[in-house]
Amino acid sequence: MARNRAYRRDMRNRAIARKKHLSHDVYGLDWFRVDGAYSKGHIGCGCRMCKFTKFYGIKAAPECS
């Protein structure tokens, strides 16, 4: 399947929304001034919600990793 620009744009926007949601809910602040910067790096923390495989020893679902 050939991936077009619309598909890549949608995946990028989904990653931005997920990381932005995580930074707002867990940390309560904005990491970056612009939304596009969320797609470039890893936003996460060491809490049990984000690192459940480390604390509970269970496998992650393929769509969550």
Structure write-up:
By secondary structure, this protein is mainly α. The chain has one domain. The radius of gyration is 14 Å and the shape is flat. Helix content is 43%, strand content 0%.
Q: Which helices and strands, and how do they pair?
A:
Layout: H1 5-27, H2 52-56
In short:
It contains two helices and no strands. It has about 60 residues and is mostly helical.
**Poorly predicted ranges (pLDDT <50, ≥5 residues)?**
none
Helix content: 40-55%
- Kindly report the average pLDDT value: 78
Radius of gyration: 14 Å
Per DSSP, what share of the residues sits in E-state strands of 2 or more residues? under 5%
Shape: flat
Number of strands: 0
**Terminus-to-terminus distance:** 22 Å
Count of DSSP-assigned helices: 2
- Tell me about the largest β-sheet: none
Query: How would you classify the quaternary structure?
Result: single chain
Structural class, from secondary structure content?
A: mainly alpha
What is the total domain count? 1
Q: What are the secondary-structure elements, in order, as H or E?
A: HH
Short descriptors:
65 residues; single chain; flat; 43% helix; mainly alpha
